[in-house]
């Protein structure tokens, strides 16, 4: 009897310990449930505050620049001579260089990227798709400085065989190479958009007697149009913001021209040049890089907003 009583007492103690441990564990879990959302909120806020900090810095320095250089002169001037004795700060040479190089890049990237996406989505077997798509996306992982030297030392000499007037540094070669760099982005995003179209739509069109090419052109592409156009816009945004390729292969000429065989400078290349040591802090040329950076920021922001609008405007509900 005494032994049974001792066992029962020991079991009672163990049960009380288990209940206490359970309560402590539950309390700790409750604390974690309350703390984790606040920790995650702080982490999410860091990226927002970083963006606000960048925007604040750009705005304050840009305002300082426009207190020295008139707003109209900056956006309508065709002469950019920041290191001259009589400096001029027209941004149009940089804008034309940026837009022309981006236009050439998209002229290369859009047709090749879209055709590749159509093949991978509609014609390639699963085995071929699993092999080809990762190989294609390797292009996206190559450092842009490698692309820059590729444009300068390989593409330009080849082009000069066909275009005798092509300068050693020009806007054509980096534009083409930027297009090659953007092909994986356009192909991958477009292929994802087309692959998300339900098979029932393909099968329904084929059942009505359409050929595979007709299904692709009249059913799949229109249904995936929002994703396809968004990939184009993101590609343009990527081209506008590209730095190293144009810095290496397009030179630093600040001429206002539309001749793609000549050297031009883009906005990103100008920022690299100015931050390379030519601009003493507090000088007008120093503040000009913030004005150019602000212009670039607005460009890319508009492109991203346009991509979001297109995705929502042309989204198909299946």
TrEMBL record:
Any one Pfam family match given in the protein's UniProt record, by short name: BPD_transp_1
Gene Ontology CC annotation, any one: plasma membrane
PROSITE patterns for this protein: ABC_TM1 (PS50928)
Amino-acid biosynthesis among keywords: no
Entry keyword set: Cell membrane, Membrane, Phosphate transport, Transmembrane, Transmembrane helix, Transport
Keyword S-adenosyl-L-methionine (UniProt): no
Annotated ranges, domain ABC transmembrane type-1: 95-307
Segments passing through the bilayer: 39-59, 91-114, 135-159, 171-189, 219-240, 285-307
GO biological process per UniProt: phosphate ion transport
Gene3D superfamilies: MetI-like (1.10.3720.10)
Compartment(s): Cell membrane; Membrane
Tree of life domain: Bacteria
InterPro entries documented for this protein: MetI-like (IPR000515), MetI-like_sf (IPR035906), Phosphate_PstC (IPR011864)
Single annotated GO MF: phosphate transmembrane transporter activity
Membrane topology, as annotated: Multi-pass membrane protein
Protein family according to the UniProt entry: Belongs to the binding-protein-dependent transport system permease family. CysTW subfamily.
NCBIfam families: phosphate_pstC (TIGR02138)
Function: Part of the binding-protein-dependent transport system for phosphate; probably responsible for the translocation of the substrate across the membrane.
PANTHER family: PHOSPHATE TRANSPORT SYSTEM PERMEASE, PHOSPHATE TRANSPORT SYSTEM PERMEASE PROTEIN
Record protein name field: Phosphate transport system permease protein
Species: Halalkalibacter krulwichiae
């Amino acid at each position: 009897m005494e032994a049974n009583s001792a066992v029962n007492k020991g079991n009672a103690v163990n049960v009380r310990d288990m209940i206490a441990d359970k309560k402590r564990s539950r309390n700790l879990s409750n604390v974690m449930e309350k703390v984790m959302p606040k920790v995650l909120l702080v982490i999410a806020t860091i990226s927002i505050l970083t963006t606000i900090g960048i925007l604040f810095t750009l705005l304050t320095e840009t305002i300082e620049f426009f207190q020295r250089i008139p707003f109209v002169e900056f956006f309508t001037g065709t002469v950019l001579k920041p290191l001259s004795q009589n400096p001029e700060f027209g941004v149009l040479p940089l804008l034309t260089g940026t837009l022309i190089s981006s236009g050439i890049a998209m002229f290369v990237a859009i047709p090749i990227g879209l055709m590749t996406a159509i093949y991978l989505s509609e014609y390639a077997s699963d085995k071929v798709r699993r092999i080809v798509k990762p190989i294609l996306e390797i292009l996206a992982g190559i450092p842009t400085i490698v692309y820059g030297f590729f444009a300068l030392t390989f593409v330009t000499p080849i082009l000069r065989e066909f275009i005798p007037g092509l300068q050693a540094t020009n806007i054509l070669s980096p534009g083409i190479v930027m297009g090659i760099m953007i092909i994986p982005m356009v192909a991958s995003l477009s292929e994802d958009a087309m692959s998300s179209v339900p098979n029932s739509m393909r099968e329904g069109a084929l059942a009505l007697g359409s050929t595979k090419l007709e299904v692709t052109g009249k059913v799949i592409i229109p249904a995936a149009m929002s994703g396809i156009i968004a990939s184009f816009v993101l590609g343009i945004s990527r081209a506008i913001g590209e730095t190293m390729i144009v810095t290496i292969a397009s030179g630093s000429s600040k001429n206002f021209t539309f001749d793609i065989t000549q050297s031009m400078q883009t906005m990103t290349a100008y920022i690299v040049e100015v931050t390379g040591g030519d601009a003493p802090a507090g000088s007008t040329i120093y503040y000009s890089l913030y004005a150019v950076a602000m212009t670039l920021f607005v460009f890319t922001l508009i492109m991203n907003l346009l991509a979001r609008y297109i995705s929502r405007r042309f989204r198909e509900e299946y």
